[in-house]
From TrEMBL:
Top-rank taxon: Bacteria
Keywords: DNA-binding, Transcription, Transcription regulation
Residue span, HTH araC/xylS-type domain: 167-267
Provenance organism: Deinococcus aerius
Protein name in UniProt: Transcriptional regulator
Gene3D superfamilies, per database record: Homeodomain-like
InterPro entries found in the cross-reference section: AraC_XylS_family_regulators, Homeodomain-like_sf, HTH_AraC, HTH_AraC-typ_CS
Transcription regulation listed as a keyword: yes
GO molecular function: DNA-binding transcription factor activity; sequence-specific DNA binding
Length: 276
């Protein structure tokens, strides 16, 4: 009897830290938050953000208490079986990054999780669903590589390496956004000079590193201000999302959301009828 093409991990953590010297090709999702380190790069996983890692990538992970993980690990050699892998090459390696999977991937992950928890996932069904997931991931990966075609580089190999480094930089900025973070952090994670990073980043992602950090901060600030039951003061939200000055935070929030933090907090206090 041959081994299944994939194995699943579905567990709740009371707080965990560990590392893997030679990981499998895997897609990691969390209900809660986990932080992964691959070299100097950092990746935040949780909510709608999943992490795609290649076979052989070493990493370190810290999982916050109360986080429930659902990860799928694909066995060595499985890439050669993917319907789209034939013309992608037998040694296909994904563009490692955190991503927001499109609905078809989330739906498939939901099916895997539900059947795994119900113990109705026999080896044949697991293989079938794993191959379908792999096919979807290959298609998603191609879209990411197409976005990298416009990067300035002398050769396809150098362009691919630049794309990998830029995605590591973006993941690191997102993971560190709620604390003191600067272009130097992204430069160290990517191994690029700040100037080279800034140019390539704008070409690949269509925005500056500062915009990436601001988007993350503004999304978290809005959640903290508007989520019913929290009632956090604006000053505390300012600190939680990485700003040192309430004035600076208030101005940034108003520019981004078109309303003041105080108004957003009142929405959270009385409830927002749009949610019901």
């Amino acid at each position: 009897m041959t081994a299944p093409l994939a194995r699943l991990l579905n567990e709740e953590s009371f707080g965990y830290a560990g590392e893997s010297a030679f990981g499998a090709l895997s897609l990691k999702t969390m209900r809660g938050t986990a932080h992964y380190w691959t070299g100097q790069a950092r990746h935040r996983v949780g909510g709608e953000r999943a992490l795609l890692l290649n076979e052989g990538t070493s990493y370190r992970v810290e999982v916050e208490p109360g986080t429930r993980s659902f990860c799928i690990f694909l066995n060595p050699g499985v890439l050669t079986l993917a319907p789209l892998a034939e013309d992608a090459g037998a040694h296909l390696r994904f563009l490692e990054r955190t991503l927001t999977p499109p609905p078809p991937i989330w739906a498939l992950l939901g099916t895997l999780r539900t059947r795994h928890e119900a113990r109705t996932l026999d080896p044949l069904a697991l293989d079938t669903l794993a191959l379908r997931l792999l096919d979807l991931l290959v298609g998603e990966d191609r879209e990411a590589w197409r976005a990298a075609d416009g990067l300035p580089a002398l050769s396809p190999a150098r362009r691919a390496e630049l794309a990998r480094r830029l995605f590591r930089a973006r993941d690191t900025l997102d993971a560190l956004a709620l604390g003191p973070v600067g272009l130097g952090d992204a430069a160290r994670a990517s191994g690029l000079s700040p100037a080279h990073l800034a140019r390539g980043y704008a070409r690949l992602f269509g925005e500056t590193p500062l915009t990436t950090v601001t988007r993350r901060r503004m999304a978290e600030a809005r959640r903290l201000l508007e989520e019913e039951g929290l009632g956090l003061p604006v000053a505390e939200v300012t600190w939680r999302v990485g700003y040192a000055s309430v004035t600076t935070f208030t101005a940034a929030y108003a520019r981004w959301h078109g309303q003041t933090p105080g108004w957003a907090r009142r929405i959270g206090e009385v409830g927002d009828g749009r949610r019901h």
